[in-house]
Structures are given as structure tokens and as C-alpha cells.
User: Fold this.
Amino acid sequence: MNEKYNKDSILLNEILNKKEFNKLRTEEKSMFANISISDEKIKVPMIAESFKIKKVFNDLLDETHERVKKELAELRKKGSAPKVNQKSAPKEKRILVFDETEEKRFLSELRSNAKDPVNRHFSYIHLQSFYYKYRDVDSGYLDECIKYCENDIETLDSLQNAHIATELERIKRLGSYMDKKLVESSVKQIESGFKGNIPAFSRLAIIYEKSKEYGKAVAICDMAIRYYKRWDMETSEFEDRKNKLLDKNK
Assistant:
């Protein structure tokens, strides 16, 4: 967080605008300790259900995870890696039952976000993860996962355009309250694009690798590399994956 945002905390209004915040589902909660009003309830927004907030923190965790893996690999080469704890006994495999209610909810959210490229992107991510979870239940669910990954990738340009336009409008509204140099710096950063990782690339590469369709997996890596380079993002994950795939395809 310090490296990416130059601070050790993130304000929620830096992630969600007012319109997005107002769209969050609410639940009535008792919020008062005073016994005379202990039965009173207020509507509390379920912030943890926000796609955008989940995505921001998921990206932070993903990037940290990848960095830790690289650091551990270097430590292993030097023979100074920490010892791994012994694995606990494997858990009993649970039989998954397809959740039709959850599917309907995600599809409904996608329909409601159809004209909003940013929120639509996060809807696609939820559907990708949802259908991938049930890939062993029915091969059709893996096909659905692939479909929404491809839909997401095909609409990345509209995601970038909408993100930049929305953020520039936000800076325009706040500009009169901000230092001129800070405004200029913020505008430059916004125009550099949406820097979030795109899970669809990794998901498709893994799916095609597992099915031994190495050519398709390499093609996805090439797409990811081009996209990340275009927006000045780290590409080593896909370059490394591509090299391993090419070795397998020899």
C-alpha cells in the first residue's frame, strides 16, 4: 500500500463514488448502546460486497503474494529460506452443489451494470470465479467461465475509457479544493489508466494449460503482455508463464 498509494491507508471514497456507494445493498442493524434506544435500527451499507473494493484489495494481496514468491525463490537459491511447517492432514473433499440462487444474483448484477463499463468489469470477475468453482460439476460451467473471461477482455478498452473519464470528472469537481500541483499530478496519474490486474488473462491461461491447449495459453499470455505494456504495468508473470508453456509445447 505504501508503494502503490504512498500511504498506509485508503479512504473508501477514493474507491467508490457517491452513486456507487448508494447502490450498495443495505441491512438494518442495531447501532446504539444506549438502552433507551436499543431497539432502534439504521440501514447500514454492505461495503464488503462492493466489487470495486474487493478488487482493489484483491490486487494488493495478489501483488504481495507474487512478490513474496519471488523473494522466497531467491532465498531458496541462497539456502536461507524459512522452513515450511508440516502440512496438516488433508480435509475431506466436499461435494459441490451448484448454487442457482447465487448464479441468478450475479447475472442480475451483470444486467444492471451492462451500461457501466467499470462495474460491468467487476461483474464479469464475479461470474468468472463463480463458474470456475463448479468446473468439475459440469463442463458447461467451465465454458461459461471462459465466455465471461473473453467478454471481459474484449471490453477492456471501454473499461479504461470509462475509468479515465470518471476519475477526471471527479478531479474536476474537487479541483477547486486541491493544490494546483496535486491536481496536475492526479490528472497525469489518471490518464495513465486503470492499473488493476485482469484476472481473466490468468484464468484463461490456466484453463488452456490444464487442458494441454498450449498454443491457446501462449496466445492469452501474448494478449496480457501487450495489454499490460500498453498501460505500463508489470508483465513478468505472463512472460514467465509463456516461457514455461513454450517448453511444454516443444
Summary: The chain is about 60% helix and 5% strand.
